[in-house]
Amino acid sequence: MDGSAERTLLITLTGRDRPGVTSRLFRTLSQFPLTVADVEQVVIRGRLVLGVLLAYTEGADIGRVWNAAERVANDLDMEIELSTGRNKRMPKRSGRLHVTVLGNPLMPAAMAGIAGRISAHGANIDRIERLAQNPVTCIEMDVSGADPDGLRAALTAEAVEQRVDVAVQHSGLHRRAKRLIVMDVDSTLIQGEVIELLAEHAGCLDEVAKVTEAAMRGELDFEGSLRERVALLAGLDASAIDSVRDRLRLAAGARTMVRTLKRLDYKFAIVSGGFTQVTDALVEDLGIDYSAANTLEIQNGKLTGRVTGQVIDRAGKAAALERFAREAGVPISQTVAIGDGANDLDMLQAAGLGIAYNAKPVVRQAADTAVNVPYLDTIVFLLGISREEVEAADAQDSQGGDPLEPPSRAGRSSRHG
């Protein structure tokens, strides 16, 4: 075709979705000297919107094409819109980003605010797709022409105002490459803090909980606070650890997240300021690839009130992430770190994507994005995986249950579920 004389015809079909609509339209169009310039299709609650942009030369009999397309619409009992124009090749827009919005519920005002911020930064929304609608609504937008840092700051402020979660990530092939997930354990992978469960047995829960909370807010040095809390457990019978292990409950959606991403060849690591006597069992149960944690010293069946070896603190967690990435053969840019406390900050900032999960304010402010809904598997949406894809994979898995049911109900047969 002569590019200087190229014209376009945009056909938009709208109506009840059913099998064969797209094929019927293209079979009809195949009778004419046309080329396909673009196609978009979306189905919302059983209603189909199909847009086809066709290119043709100036001498083509477009009236016959128009009539044929209208006959297809009439036969299918669908509405049709047709418009012609010139095929103006748009310059490639830079700064392509994924903007993911999580809401429970997601209100129109939130979408208006997010879209307004994007527009105010001179960016364009090229595509919008729903990734999930239960138990949270997740919308992903492809955005071009924006400065990532500026847009992220603006959308973070809007997210706080609208009470939604927003993530801004670079677009590209890296999103589909093998990645390493590195997770905190206490109050992230599992519900609650192991040291506080042990403190219940030792009769010092209030004192330990107060120190833990201050440490997670970043008000205390983690190593010093850990040794202080562990010292309060001196003399506790080691059988208390078994009791705590049996009481563990995974965060809602944890098992689904691990299962789904491991199907996609992701590697998983846990790194904890807690204790190997607990994390080792989680590694076995969930099929975790790498782990690092502290170890309680036990002598004559009793806790001594000390830990052995180097303490896994804030810097130790970041070092573990880098070590696991090397062992997995994954560049740091392909790592995802998830945590909730101040001792996770170095790890979150070192990772390619740092996610603050139901985190303290200091952590939310420093992380790339924050997730504040109580479902750990919503993190798969940030990686571009839809709920429908999760459910389809679970349907093929003989052990697949309700992917978003809290593990304490969905996985009762499992020791930690």
In short:
The protein is α/β, with parallel strands linked by helices. 38% of the residues lie in helices and 27% in strands.
Q: Per the principal axes of the C-alpha atoms, what is the gross shape?
A: elongated
Name the CATH class of the domain at 180-192 and 249-367.
Answer: Alpha Beta
Poorly predicted runs of 5 or more residues? 400-417
Q: What summary fits the major beta sheet?
A: 7 strands, mixed
Strand order, largest beta sheet: 12-11-10-9-13-14-15
Rg, Å, rounded: 27 Å
Number of helices: 16
| Spatial separation of the terminal alpha carbons | 62 Å
Structural class: alpha/beta
What level of helicity do the residues show?
A: 25-40%
Strand content: 25-35%
CATH superfamily membership of the domain at 180-192 and 249-367, which one? HAD superfamily/HAD-like
* Number of E-type strands: 15
CATH architecture identity of the domain at 180-192 and 249-367: 3-Layer(aba) Sandwich
